[in-house]
Design a protein that fits this description.
alpha+beta
Length: 198
């Protein structure tokens, strides 16, 4: 009985201060991208969601900041690939364009996105960096879907998800304000022999 009480107390202390990640807010990519605070001030930048196979709307600008009229000075092309590749067996991805020193630039991979964000100022940026590392949150499990602000940055309880076979692994993550990332497994909390085509 005393052993159970001690374990329960330790578990409660580890969970102290963690808030459940709001599914309704954070599953909306636009809500996340609107909170990106880049590593410097740009004349203009925009976050684009690309769906090359979509007949009527192959791109969608989820968020933009700055003087959009500057875009008319450049020939902007949709890159052939980007970060956060999704929508299998079709194909969609994200990218960022930004204008700096009168030059058009593209962010098309995870390392460039991390450099673009640079300092982690908020939970939205922390979640985007976690997504770079292949982690995301489980809206139905607080042990894989919660976070707290710390003096150094953020601590998060997230999940690593595999689709074939279906597996959910709880992960404890620390991200400091400089973007340094540490994670450790807290064990598999769901597994199945099934496969899901994403």
């Amino acid at each position: 009985m005393l052993f159970f009480s001690a374990v329960f107390t330790i578990s409660c202390n580890q969970d102290k201060g963690f808030e459940k990640i709001d599914e309704a807010f954070y599953l909306n990519r636009e809500n996340l991208t609107s909170k990106i605070n880049p590593n410097r001030e740009y004349a203009y930048w925009e976050y684009v969601y690309a769906m090359p196979g979509h007949m009527y709307k192959p791109i969608e600008v989820l968020f933009s900041h700055g003087d959009s009229t500057l875009k008319s000075n450049y020939k902007i092309k949709m890159p052939e690939s980007g970060f956060f590749s999704e929508c299998m067996p079709a194909y969609c991805y994200s990218y960022i364009i930004f204008i700096s020193n009168n030059k058009l630039n593209y962010v098309v991979n995870e390392s460039q996105l991390q450099a673009f964000i640079n300092r982690v100022d908020n939970i939205e940026e922390a979640l985007l960096l976690a997504k770079i590392k292949g982690l995301w949150f489980d809206p139905e499990n607080k042990d894989a879907g919660s976070y707290k602000k710390t003096a150094e940055g953020f601590e998060l309880k997230l999940g690593r998800f595999e689709s074939c076979p279906v597996t959910s692994e709880a992960m404890k993550v620390k991200i400091d304000t400089l973007g340094n990332f540490k994670s450790e497994s807290r064990g598999i909390y769901f597994s199945s022999s099934e496969c899901i085509l994403e």
